[in-house]
Amino acid sequence: MGMISGSVAKSPEVKPARTITLLGATGSVGTSTLDVLSRHPGRYRLHGVTAFASDAAMAGICIAHRPTVAVMIDEAAADRLSTTLRAAGCPTRVEQGEAALEALGRDASADTVVSAIVGAAALLPTLAAAESGKRLLLANKEALVMSGDLLMSAARASGALVMPVDSEHNAIFQCLPATSTGICTKGVEKIILTASGGPFRTTPLEALRVATVQQALAHPNWTMGPKISIDSATLMNKGLEVIEACRLFDLDVSDIEVVVHPESLIHSMVRYVDGSVIAQLGRPDMRTPIAQALAWPERIDAGVAPLDFTEVAGLHFEKPDPVRFPALRLAFEAQAAGGTSPAVLNAANEVAVEAFLAGDVAFLQLAELVERTLVAAKSAPARDLPSIIQADRDAREIARRELATLN
Ligand code: NDP
Ligand code: MG
Predict the structure, then answer these.
(1) Ligand 1 atom, smallest distance to 101 CA
(2) What is the per-residue pLDDT across 144-160, written as a single tens digit (0 to 9) for each?
(3) What spacing in Å lies between the alpha carbon of 199 and ligand 1's midpoint?
């Protein structure tokens, strides 16, 4: 399918290739991104890739995709990667450490940065990309949640184009009209974020008390990294996404509603004041939003099978349960409180999830730990980067102290 008018010829794909830096290349979103890129070799060229310590996975990526530079945070992993690449005759330059990661976010050799690092560690390189006027494909949500207005105003100042990759926000982007000055939210009555409900959607409270890490990691519809999988089980992921939507689309929390939709086929919706509702549908496969964000305003093949509606048994919707999933309320409250409260929420949650994955807290204590930290931490204006980093540090300290009192 192509243009509607009859005689317009299809334009050939002869534009210069876009150059891509992929932060978090070894992760779940990173792997999906590489899959999409490899389907369009003439259109995209990989400049930089990063990981924390997974040097074996990184070696495979470098040998297959031949990026110019690979950054590892872990020093020993960087050394191992250098040795492996030298032995394989792969010319990728290996760099190491957080300063190299941030510099790569800013590196002018790439025009597009995909931010797919998990957690607050994405803040500095993502901010660097936003400050340097690139197309920024944002999968990471923690940096946006913690940074107040910082990230989006840096993007506005530099002219960076922020493309949401998180499937819900990518859906909203697709449901809003684009004007020459950006996305328009005039006439929006509500943004409706859909949530799968996670692995414990129907699990009774009593069973949640003894929920295991393995059960929490087993998401019914999506295959994702461990941190976001736990966040999906508590619904903190949806809470972070509420704040993410406020930041991306310049909305108030009262503009946002969450509805549980177990099939994960509608990725989110926009309801307008005239009664229209626009929804974006697709299979639960991150390659779709990644491809949309890479190619916008064009469309490219993502390797995703077409959605066959005759195979869809039904679309169901229900209200999220505030008793079994208090994390959602905490996120709404933190965003309403403003300032550094979302940074506190995020930091406490990162500490809590790490502790849960290590077997140190029970499932229901995750939200409890976040709530206790929010109560104990002082909220301050999220004025600048140092005040945000300080709030993140203080909240982690408080959360660790609270953690010790829980057990
Ligand atoms: P993964 O855990 O699968 O991957 C995380 C990536 O970040 C890896 O490359 C990892 O390297 C790297 N990394 C981890 N810690 C650090 C650190 N301290 N410094 C630098 N790099 C680090 O995560 P996902 O792909 O699941 O998620 C990535 C982000 O995208 C998250 O913010 C998540 O919320 C968001 N997202 C994910 C979706 C999904 O489907 N997975 C959907 C929507 C949003 P290494 O392998 O060496 O540890
Ligand atoms: Mg999402």
Answers:
(1) 20
(2) 999 989 999 999 999 99
(3) 20
Q: Which residue has the tokens 């929010």?
A: 374
H or E element, residue 100: helix 98-106
- Write the pLDDT tens digit of every residue in 227-255: 999 999 999 999 999 999 999 999 999 99
Identify whether the C-beta of residue 70 lies closer than 8 Å to the C-beta of residue 21: no
Which has the closest alpha carbon to 32: 183, 141, 209, 166? 166
Residue 72 CA, ligand 1 centroid: distance in Å: 14
What is the rounded CA–CA span in Å between residue 163 and residue 293?
6
- What are the pLDDT digits (tens) for 160-202? 999 999 999 999 999 999 876 678 899 999 999 999 999 999 9
Q: How far is the CA of 322 from the centre of ligand 2 (A)?
A: 19
Question: Residue 400: is its pLDDT beyond 90?
Answer: yes
Ramachandran assignment for 359, one of left (phi > 0), alpha (psi -120 to 50 degrees), beta (any other): left
**Residue-averaged pLDDT of the chain:** 95
Please give the pLDDT value at position 179: 76
β-pairing verdict for 112-115 and 93-96: unpaired
Nearest to 134 by CA among 237, 242, 19, 31: 19
Residue 4: pLDDT band (50, 70, 90) is very low
Closest ligand 1 atom to Cα of 29: 25
Residue to probe by mutation, ligand 1, list 28, 118, 247, most atoms within 8 Å of CB: 118
301: left (phi over 0), alpha (psi -120 to 50) or beta: beta
Is pLDDT at 3 greater than 80 in this prediction?
A: no
Bridging pattern class, strands 69-72 and 93-96: parallel
| The two three-digit tokens of residue 187, written as one number | 């006439």
Ligand 1, atom 43, residue with closest C-alpha: 166
The binding-site residues of ligand 1, defined as CB within 6 angstroms of any ligand atom, are 24-30, 51-54, 73, 116-118, 121, 139-142, 166, 222, 224-225, 227-228, 286
- What is the biggest distance separating any 2 CA atoms in the chain, rounded to whole angstroms? 72
Nearest-atom index, ligand 1, CA of 141:
32
CB proximity list for 297: less than 8 A, separation 6 or greater = 178
What is the whole-number distance in angstroms between the Cα of residue 23 and the centre of ligand 1? 9
Instruction: List Cβ neighbours of 80 (8 Å cut-off, separation of 6 or more).
Output: 55
Return d(Cα 26, Cα 49) in angstroms, integer: 9
> What is the model's pTM?
0.96
The position carrying tokens 């990661």 is 101
